[in-house]
Amino acid sequence: MQQFGITGLYTALVFCVRCERCSANIVRQNATSKESSPFINSSTSDVEKCQQYDGKNMALFEEEMDTSPMVSSLLSSLANYSNLTQGSKEHEEAENNEEAPRMGTLMGVYLPCMQNILGVILFLRMTWLVGAGGVLGTFIIVFMCCSTTMLTAISMSAIATNGVVPAGGSYYMISRSLGPEFGGAVGICFYLGTTFAGAMYILGCIEILLIYIVPAAAIFKMEGLEGAEAEAALLNNMRVYGTIVLSFMALVVFVGVKYVNKLALVFLACVILSILAVYAGVIKTSFDPPFFPVCLLGNRTLVSKGFDICAKTIEQGNATVTTKLWRAFCDSEFLNATCDEYFTNNNVTQIQGIPGITSGILAENLFSTFMEKNSILEKRGVPAVLDPEATVTNTNRYVMADITSFFTLLVGIYFPSVTGIMAGSNRSGDLQDAQKSIPVGTILAITTTSFIYMSSVILFGACVDGVVLRDKFGEGVNGNLVIGTLAWPSPWVIVFGSFFSTCGAGLQSLTGAPRLLQAIARDSIIPFLRVFGHGKANGEPTWALLLTACICETGILIASLDAVAPILSMFFLMCYMFVNLACALQTLLRTPNWRPRFKFYHWALSLLGMSLCLTLMFLCSWYYAIVAMVIASCIYKYIEFCGAEKEWGDGIRGISLSAARYALMRLEEGPPHTKNWRPQILVLMSLDGEQSVEQPRLLSLTSQLKAGKGLTIVGACVEGTYLNNQPQAQKADQSLRKLMEVEKVKGFSQVVISSNLRDATSHLIQAGGLGGLRHNTVLVSFPKNWKQAEETYSDFKYYVVRETTAAHLALLVTKNISAYPSNGERFTEGHIDVWWIVHDGGLLMLLPFLLRQHKVWRKCKIRIFTVAQMDDNSIQMKKDLMTFLYHLRFDAEVEVVEMHDSDISAYTYEKTLVMEQRSQILKEMHLTKNEREREVLWEHTTLYPTSPTAPTPAAVTPGEEVQMTWTDETEKTNNPAVANPESVKDMFNMKPNQSNVRRMHHAQELNGVIVKKSKEAKLVLLNMPGPPKNRNGEENYMEFLEVLTEGLNRVLLVRGGGREVITIYS
């Protein structure tokens, strides 16, 4: 019973603690909303979560419930996860509050892809492509383009089945696979391609309307015009009607997107019926070819609107009567009229425009027939009498080429007909099983449409005469749509079917493009596009639709379907190229998260698809390809410099990791050659009590030295333990990063926590860098008040010198760092003086060269001073030094300074004595309490060794230990001089060490020469003397450095790392 009571009390306490934690979590949840993710059960409150956990044997993990969800709740959230973006539901679904029905492979992927792939090019340009490029050439074009889209579909299927793809389709896949920079650049290209596709569909719609349905509706009349005037009238009609239709379509999209989606199946039915009518017509030609006569004058094709009978004269009764064709080429209707020379010399013949599939016309259409602009359409194999010197007249009576045709032009015009393969992936949010439907539906749609296109090439070449195929606007067949002449039961099936299909495709483009732009804008990767992420209350992208309509209008102002098609080909090809690149990268990098359900892919196929896309881009139009790449590159660099930083686990970051690993492994193979040596700098920064940087100018100098483009590590030390002082370390790291950003220092920050600064600095020097990419130079500032500083500070500075020497690292010590220039200052004149006393690798010569690469020091001149001893030939030294600098390619003034031995002055003797006395006093005073206790403990164990009967040292209190060797007087304990008066007497009677006297003498002599020559220099670089090998004299080292640099404004003490860093060889 007692046990039960205790257990119950414990359970109650645990429940209370949980409820308190849950209440706190609710407050936090209200303050900051959670990200919508399948791994965060945002629909369940924290109280409900805690209630779920109670009584479920999860007490062992109760402390982790806030951050680690239970497996059951995780699986439940994954099952209920929806990838529909906000505002993506249609209007009627939002009004009825009903869940949208999920679509399968047929309705969700296959049919939308079919509708987007089959369209305006098939109906308006396919026959002309076959006539100009020939069956073989056009088949090669179709095969290349279809192969490109098939390979892209395979890559896209792999990406789409590698996890959940939210609504956003291709942009989402590319951006999450290649990063925000590539994603934004390619997303904008895909958006522009979709927008120009809308312009192309609208132009196709207007072309069908004005040429084949109601030619009389033309505002700018083309009758009686020829050449450039007729072409200008046609283009102006396209511009006016295109703008009207675009405005109407934009209004429809703005008012009711639901109607566009409902009419999509109607438009698709028109496309399918039109294709079936063409196949039915082909079959009918095998036994009953349609009667479509084409009239030829010699071998030239005549415009059918200029006559009613294909003959020069006809017999009426017993008289010979001239026809309209006679009157078109002659000056009167009489037989004795003066006629066109070509008309007189050649006969008029009539041929069958569609001889049928069994006629054998395929052999004639097998090869290409490219034409120059304004050249007359002629039939092969028909004789004609032509005077080569005669000028062509009556050109408006002949069917003429409107553009110059060539192979690459045909590629650019045809490729838009195979785009639209991403219609299924763009609907991924509406599919029941996107990972199954997207690959199957897309590949089936491409297979079906590829069969339709390839069979069309062969069937058109086998059924239709070449002059009819090359007649782009059907001028020789009574203005009929050429593909319509082949259709059964009537050409109007094709005319109206193609008209409605182009209208539907244009509406779909104006619906999809603004949503794509809205998705890019909401990702906030392109700052100036953020306004287009907003829309109406239901999520409709109003501003994006307005921009889309404006860009689409530029395509309509071009007014030529053949000129707009290559533009959108560029943007689509670039998008497809990066889809293939994304798949290839993920496969080659073997990213752990790369586990597509679609298994029929390979990196070689993706690379082949990428190569095909790049090839087709330059085949279509090399200058459009360059423009598209420049646009994408500009967007890439803009996002890189100005866009928001996003971490999407992209493949480019994976490439960086792989390249970095490879490079690091290569660096491990051996030290770099002298020609490749560059300063890899470890900057040791000092921090104040608030963890702010004390000497920011040290980073300014680092930035100015980075012409070497080497590694930079900015290090700082925090005293304490890692568990207790981690917040201070994070604050210090933020201070370093902020200052690095201000000073534009590219590198890494590193903060080390240790019990004392000396050990922390040692850790930085030893462990900085990674593998072969390690620092070879340490940059530190000279202690300003080292004479008054505590022992830890002065020792810290001294041990940097000792440890860098032991590690064979170069050392740069800046004196008076606060006087150094910032990155914003400029020296318009002055000198950088180099005092070359000893050669320790050449770093002293390299540093001024690197500094002069920076704009701060660029106008300063370099002067190199070297010291000649008594036995040296100063003239020869100067010549040798100038030759050496010439081979090093350094421009500098040279001066040799002669220093003669002189007697040591009394001042030097006295200064050395004062230095040694001060060092002795500091030695006595720096005996800390811990050291005294260790000394007492040592004496105690020596005098009273541990034995079975003797008490252990632990039994004695610290106060008793101190009393064994030190007096109880506080003054004697704290003042060693009082405790030992004899030491003071000896201190004032001591004589200075002769070695120290000599060092002090040389330091003063050299300082006097340097001050005399370089007092006005902007910077003085000087060999830094090494620490004494005998550590007994190390306490005077800082004094020698102080004497050496006294009286100089800016000094950079340089100590080489023991290896050559410059060479005279190439």
In short:
The chain is an alpha/beta fold.
Can you offer a commentary on this structure?
The protein has 37 helices and 15 strands. A ten-stranded mixed β-sheet has the order 8-7-6-9-10-15-14-11-12-13, sandwiched between helices. The radius of gyration is 44 Å and the shape is elongated. It is an alpha/beta fold. Helices cover 54% and strands 8% of the residues. β1 and β2 form a beta hairpin.
Query: Based on DSSP secondary structure assignment, what is the total number of beta strands?
Result: 15
Radius of gyration: 44 Å
Unreliable residue runs: 1-50, 80-99, 936-979, 981-985
* Helix/sheet category: alpha/beta
Please state roughly what percent of the residues sit in beta strands, choosing from under 5%, 5-15%, 15-25%, 25-35%, 35-45% or over 45%.
5-15%
| Bulk shape | elongated
Helix content: 40-55%
Provide mean pLDDT, rounded. Answer: 79
How does the major sheet shape up?
10 strands, mixed
Strand order of the largest sheet: 8-7-6-9-10-15-14-11-12-13
Count of alpha and pi helical runs? 37
Distance between the termini: 92 Å
Protein name: Solute carrier family 12 member 5b
Domain Amino acid permease/ SLC12A: 109-287, 398-682
Domain SLC12A transporter C-terminal: 696-810, 827-1066
Membrane topology: Multi-pass membrane protein
